[in-house]
Amino acid sequence: LKFNSHKDAKTLMEAIEKRFRGNTETKKDQKTLLKQQFENFSGSSSEGLDQIHDRLQKLVSQLEIHRVSLSQEDVNLKFLRSLPSEWKTHTLIWRNKTDLEDKSLDDLFNSLKIYKSELDNEDLKQIDIDDLEEIDLKWQIAMLTMRAKRFLQNTGRNLGTNGPTSMGIDMAKVECYNCHRKGYFARECRSSKDSRRTAIAKPQRRNVPVETLTSNALVSQCDST
Predict the structure, then answer these.
(1) Phi and psi dihedrals of 166, rounded to 5?
(2) How many domains does the chain have?
(3) Is residue 109 within 8 Å of 98, Cβ to Cβ?
């Protein structure tokens, strides 16, 4: 920014505001891009454990520079999930043994290297596939439980199981597309059901000749006397 090129204070201030506004927008775009890169982060089979770790560590550092807060659990989970398929058995076994919240990314990386060297092919062949499946299911349940607790802490909403409308949906914002009223889904709409029921129950209108009505009335009077 060249101050001498501006003739008065007004043009100088406009130039300064434009310059810093551009920097702010650029930082915002960079932050968004880094978040997307973290969300889509994955390793390839051609990469080693060291390379995947270094790439993720660099990305996390860049996010921290842009003041994007990430929990240690999220970072470690991202690392485990980004590993190629040949790591699946190792990560399944390791995840069941270790609390992810208590380890840094470097600690997790070193633990995986040590654990992999301890488990050779003969050890892996002795592990039953159903045991691995059970480990995986237990780990997923544990992760869902932690996510539910974190959701409750952040929003104050309790994930109850008392019906289809207790799963965090704000029913006051739900609009029925049949009657356009709020508070329920279309399948719960009574307007269409009531209209069908009324159409069925409503008696048919008949045109009766006046003579018939008069004669019937006279017969009724005679019977009553």
Answers:
(1) -105, 20
(2) 1
(3) no
